[in-house]
Design a protein that fits this description.
This protein has 142 residues and is of the alpha/beta class. It has one domain (25-141). The protein has six helices and three strands, in the order αβααβαβαα. It has helices at residues 5-18, 41-45, 57-62, 94-101, 117-130, 135-141, and strands at 28-34, 65-70, 105-107. The protein is elongated, with a radius of gyration of 21 Å.
């Protein structure tokens, strides 16, 4: 006997009705570009990179998930791509500032992720992992 999609839909509906699921509200904060590199990095370093977040840390920490676009690799290595005017690379210490600010998830899909090549991108992911900036770990181990 061949079972149809309608049959599976019927079974799924019966199961869902028999076992209602309740979910709590999830608060997702999303911010734009975060740049902790470039000509202002030296000034930011004196404050452990916290100054850009100081006025908004409480709000960022209020979310269950707080996502930002990381606008540079976080690395010491890599080969600088010189084919464009602006190239950025943040120091690994910025991961601690991201965590202190309440940001627990970053995106890397932007025009600066590869400014120092694949080696720096891999190092960025390793630095973020060490800083526990991955969604499945940040809240449970913070």
């Amino acid at each position: 006997m061949k079972l149809t999609a309608a049959f599976y839909t019927f079974i799924a509906t019966i199961i869902c009705l028999a076992f209602p699921v309740h979910a709590d509200e999830i608060v997702i904060n999303a911010v734009g570009d975060v740049m902790l590199a470039g000509r202002w990095a030296a000034a930011l370093r004196t404050d452990r990179y916290d100054s850009p977040f100081r006025a908004v840390t409480a709000e960022l920490k209020a979310g269950d998930i707080t996502i930002a676009n990381l606008e540079s690799p976080i690395a010491r290595g890599g080969s600088e791509f010189t084919g464009k005017k602006f190239r950025f690379r943040a120091e690994p210490e910025v991961t601690a500032a991201l965590k202190r600010s309440g940001i627990n998830l970053v995106t890397l899909a932007n025009n600066h992720s590869m400014d120092f090549g694949g080696e720096a991108l891999v190092e960025t992911m390793e630095n973020l992992e060490r800083g526990r900036h991955c969604l499945d770990r940040c809240r449970s181990k913070s």
